[in-house]
From TrEMBL:
<dbReference type="GO" id="GO:0009507">
    <property type="term" value="C:chloroplast"/>
</dbReference>
<keyword id="KW-0630">Potassium</keyword>
<dbReference type="InterPro" id="IPR044831">
    <property type="entry name" value="Ccp1-like"/>
</dbReference>
<keyword id="KW-0150">Chloroplast</keyword>
<feature type="region of interest" description="Disordered">
    <location>
        <begin position="236"/>
        <end position="259"/>
    </location>
</feature>
<dbReference type="GO" id="GO:0020037">
    <property type="term" value="F:heme binding"/>
</dbReference>
<dbReference type="GO" id="GO:0016688">
    <property type="term" value="F:L-ascorbate peroxidase activity"/>
</dbReference>
<feature type="compositionally biased region" description="Low complexity">
    <location>
        <begin position="1"/>
        <end position="44"/>
    </location>
</feature>
<keyword id="KW-0106">Calcium</keyword>
<keyword id="KW-0472">Membrane</keyword>
<feature type="domain" description="Plant heme peroxidase family profile">
    <location>
        <begin position="117"/>
        <end position="354"/>
    </location>
</feature>
<protein>
    <recommendedName>
        <fullName>L-ascorbate peroxidase</fullName>
        <ecNumber>1.11.1.11</ecNumber>
    </recommendedName>
</protein>
<dbReference type="InterPro" id="IPR002207">
    <property type="entry name" value="Peroxidase_I"/>
</dbReference>
<keyword id="KW-0479">Metal-binding</keyword>
<dbReference type="Pfam" id="PF00141">
    <property type="entry name" value="peroxidase"/>
</dbReference>
<feature type="compositionally biased region" description="Basic and acidic residues">
    <location>
        <begin position="244"/>
        <end position="253"/>
    </location>
</feature>
<dbReference type="InterPro" id="IPR019793">
    <property type="entry name" value="Peroxidases_heam-ligand_BS"/>
</dbReference>
């Protein structure tokens, strides 16, 4: 990505977390705590009819799962990030921090962490000193106090949380993020330099494809992600691109200077695409890789669409950003978890897990319950209508029967008496 300049900022004070040492140790080691079968399991078996030849049910046990990061601490960290954004206007550099940590991913390498990606490696000097990461030390200074305050979260999650929060707080779309990324442990595990995009390559469109295709992204995602240049400024003393200042940047907010892609460079919208298309304002920055979005026929389809339809841009950007943030990441739990949905919103929770059902000697398969067939209970041998079958089944289940649990014979007799009475009344009404 092209260089972006963050404004100067006051750092938040560091504070100790009140979380217990046992919990933190479990988080650090990635342990999954599995209590032995409890009384809940026994009660569940009794509720299902017990374990016998007539009703074999899975054995249940409570399992406690511990993720790489604690959801509660991530939520609190998100609120702290919002406060920093309000006072330092550092949206662009936090977006860049998350992008550059995940953007080193190589889909052709299977091993973690050799494949690169969102693994927190950007906190180490060998990667932080890469030319494309100039200035990102300021982003680390901003969020390190948050990491110190919440030791139960990983750097990899914190980088992506900061990036997503900055987009949303700048007016962008809600991003479908997930968390639980695992950190690399040592500087030796950092990816090699040269995996991030260059702002001024010889053949811009070809270079963009070479870099983003290596990550597993397509043309639509390349254009959508480029739209994040609606935020931020480029500073010539860092990236070599842009003017020292323009009428849009000379007075800040934050540290003045640099050249922005849009007039309102702290607002996330589709102005980037509109301004490149119109090319009326010489005060705004257009890099070779930006111009390529309207010069290349395949890119142009999406760039034109986003210039006209901000809703389409927001939708595609949200999906592309979330995908980028997951590249190369190793998740614990493997499926990750969300901070905003009930399912998976809590990283540490008790789940009911079914043990494999005991097998019988019929080729290893346990006894299967007989499916409910209404015709089997027809009066004499006359087949019932579909409506009558549904009524019988409703009564059958309402009185405690189910396909897996036979009903007592007197229940069924009562049902048949009621059905017979209803049929008789229906016949009289019809006549």
């Amino acid at each position: 990505m092209a260089e972006r300049l963050a404004s100067s900022a006051s750092l938040l004070p560091s504070a100790a977390s009140p979380s217990s040492s046992t919990r933190r140790a479990a988080v650090a080691s990635g342990l999954r705590l599995r209590p032995s079968p409890s009384r809940f399991s026994q009660a569940a078996r009794r509720a299902r009819g017990g374990a016998g030849a007539a009703g074999v049910v899975p054995r249940l046990r409570a399992v406690r799962c511990m993720a790489a990061s604690e959801a509660a601490q991530l939520k609190s960290a998100r609120e702290d990030i919002k406060e920093i954004l309000k006072t330092t206007y550092c949206h662009p550099i936090l977006v860049r921090l998350g992008w550059h940590d995940s953007g080193t991913y190589d889909k052709n390498i299977e091993e973690w962490p050799q494949r690169g990606g969102a693994d927190g490696s950007l906190r180490f000097d060998p990667e932080l000193s890469h030319g494309a990461n100039a200035g990102l030390t300021n982003a680390l200074k901003l969020i390190q106090p948050i990491k110190d305050k919440y030791p139960g979260i990983t750097y990899a999650d914190l980088f992506q949380l900061a990036s997503a929060t900055a987009i949303e707080e700048a007016g962008g779309p809600k991003l479908p993020m997930k968390y639980g990324r695992v950190d690399i442990a040592a500087p030796e595990q950092c990816p090699p330099e040269g995996r991030l995009p260059d702002a001024g390559p010889r053949i811009p469109a070809e270079h963009l494809r070479e870099v983003f295709y290596r990550m597993g992204l397509d043309d639509k995602e390349i254009v959508a992600l480029s739209g994040a240049h609606t935020l931020g400024r480029s500073c010539p003393d860092r990236s070599g691109w842009g003017k020292p200042e323009t009428k849009y940047t000379k007075d800040g907010p934050g540290e003045p200077g640099g050249q922005s892609w849009t007039a309102e460079w702290l607002k996330f919208d589709n102005s980037y695409f509109k301004d490149i298309k119109e090319q009326r304002d010489q005060e705004l920055l257009v890099l070779p890789t930006d111009a390529a979005l309207f010069d290349d026929p395949s890119f142009k389809v999406y760039a034109e669409k986003y210039a006209e339809d901000q809703g389409a841009f927001f939708k595609d950007y949200a999906e592309a950003h979330a995908k980028l943030s997951n590249l190369g990441a190793k998740f614990d739990p493997p499926e990750g978890f969300s901070l905003d949905e009930d399912k998976g919103a809590v990283a540490t929770e008790e789940k009911v897990v079914a043990d494999p059902a005991p097998t019988s000697d019929t080729n290893g398969a346990g006894p299967q319950p007989e499916p409910f067939v209404a015709a089997k209970y027809s009066y004499k041998k006359r087949e019932l209508s579909d409506t009558m079958k549904q009524k019988i089944r409703a009564e059958y289940e309402g009185l405690g029967g189910s396909p897996n649990k036979p009903m007592k014979s007197n229940y069924f007799l009562n049902i048949m008496i009621v059905i017979a009475g209803l049929a008789f009344l229906t016949s009289l009404t019809g006549n």
